[in-house]
Amino acid sequence: MNILVAKKRSNIIRNNKIENKDICFKCNGKLDEFFVCKTCGNNSYISAKQRITHISDENTFKELSFNKIDISKKCNYEDRINKAKENTDLNEAIIIGTCSIGGIKVVLGVMESKFMMGTLSVSVGETITSAFEYASVNKLPVILFCASGGARIQEGVFSLVQMAKVNAAIKRHSDKGLLYISCLTNPTMGGVTASFGLLGDINIAEKNSQIGFAGKSIIENLYNEILDSNFQTEQYNENNGMIDIIADRKDIRNILLDLLKMINNNNKVVRIDNKDENKSKTNDDLLETLKNARDIDRFKGKDYLISIFDKYIELKGDRINSNDTSILSGIGNIENKSFIFNIQNKGRTLKENRETNYGLTRPEGYRKALRISKIAEKFNIPIINIIDSAGADPSIYSEKNGQAIAIADCLYTFSDLKTIIISIVVGEGSSGGALALSVCDSIGMLQKSIYTVISPESYLKIMHKEEQVSNELLKSMRFTANDLFEDKIIDEVISESDNLNYNANNIKNFILNKYEILRKQDIQELINNRYERIRNWDIVAKGE
Ligand SMILES: [Zn+2]
What we know:
Blueprint: H1 3-8, E1 11-14, E2 17-20, H2 48-55, E3 62-63, H3 78-88, E4 94-101, E5 104-111, H4 122-137, E6 142-148, H5 156-175, E7 180-188, H6 190-197, E8 202-206, H7 216-223, H8 234-239, E9 245-247, H9 252-263, H10 286-293, H11 301-308, E10 311-314, E11 327-334, E12 337-344, H12 350-355, H13 363-378, E13 383-389, H14 396-400, H15 403-414, E14 421-430, H16 431-435, E15 442-446, E16 450-452, H17 456-464, H18 471-475, H19 481-486, E17 492-494, H20 500-518, H21 523-535, H22 539-542
Parallel strand pairs: 5-6, 6-7, 7-8, 8-9, 12-13, 13-14, 14-15, 14-16, 15-17
Antiparallel strand pairs: 1-2, 3-4, 4-5, 10-11, 11-12
Helix pairs in contact: 4-5, 5-6, 11-20, 13-15
The structure holds zinc ion.
The site of zinc ion has 8 residues, from loops.
């Protein structure tokens, strides 16, 4: 490394100790209390101990000591590990203990990137595994801050198998319905990303973090090409569906606190507003209804997200290859009660339309909704699905990426997902793309929305060879809220106007009223009733 560059680094080894410097290594600007540059916003090095001070409530951290398995002598790198111990004042590349965050007790582990690059040794693996076992017994959530170059190659295959060992303990912890949040910081690579790094129920990435599997320079050498500066950044990982939340370092504690509160929230809703009985009939002019349901100025999913929830955190990504913005998923509060949400969003401006693919959901959107819904099942949080889509994305891309199986998986999994599911159609609910979010315990429709098997134009083309949509031909489709209420496909027509708050309030009341009724059923009863409901959807068709 060039000596001049080395001197600029914000952390330097002085008298063999690693210390923070108070200036940014990128621009020489001053650092704030979180070691983030006040000028350019770049994150400087933060030690594991400093991280613990930032995250935990004051004086609550108590280190957990488990069996230390030091094989450095056997593996011939005793000198290096002794040097690392001396430089960092730590025994290994991780500190784990219990502490409270906003009064909530957790197990908190922080990896130290300056201890042999935070590599995963037998001792580190053993510590993390023991910590998950401890958390399982004591029913505690686990929060890990990852910072690692990967497996510690000095320990050979002993290091490699730690990945499997830690993950087996995480699986057991998860099976007990306990929460694990992974915070990926700079850098998180190799065997850590490929084991516990990305396995959080929720993954948070700190800004300015390199996150990946193979090192960038290794890939560049292998393929003889220069990768762009976005490669393996936190944004790159979010775009590829691996990360729920990107956060500034100073905000991570508050995000953790919000998540801990929302996920462990068992508040019961007691408020039930009187239903709005003023349900005018849906417009008889079906052409008008169709136009209205698709109106660009009609309130969209995001409008309802903002106005129904008192507070929410969006969770992103399908953990496979992407984050589909036509569905907004996450966790939020209504009247102090937590709900998981999957909200189809078309956007209202041309820019938003493009960003959300005009509300045409891709396979990764359905996969994200399912992933987030499984979090709801694990923590017994009710789900709200809001539907507004002209259908599933019919592109070559989506076809190749498994659109059909993604929808089928939703229908299959939602049919017995062990938590309450409430769905609302707020605009256009068309085809399997809408049905995927309609398998639920109760479904309502805004008065002027529509719900169809296929777009009316395609229907008429196929059924009647008609190009021109007419009122007469549309009648047989029975897609209005009133038709579907009569046909017992939906449970309630929700009154609407051109006032967002009025609509949002009515939707909120629908959700809370239905939740209040549904929560009195035990899980098996709920699932049985959901099955009966799906079985009986054809009663009207049979003419009974
Ligand atoms: Zn700077």
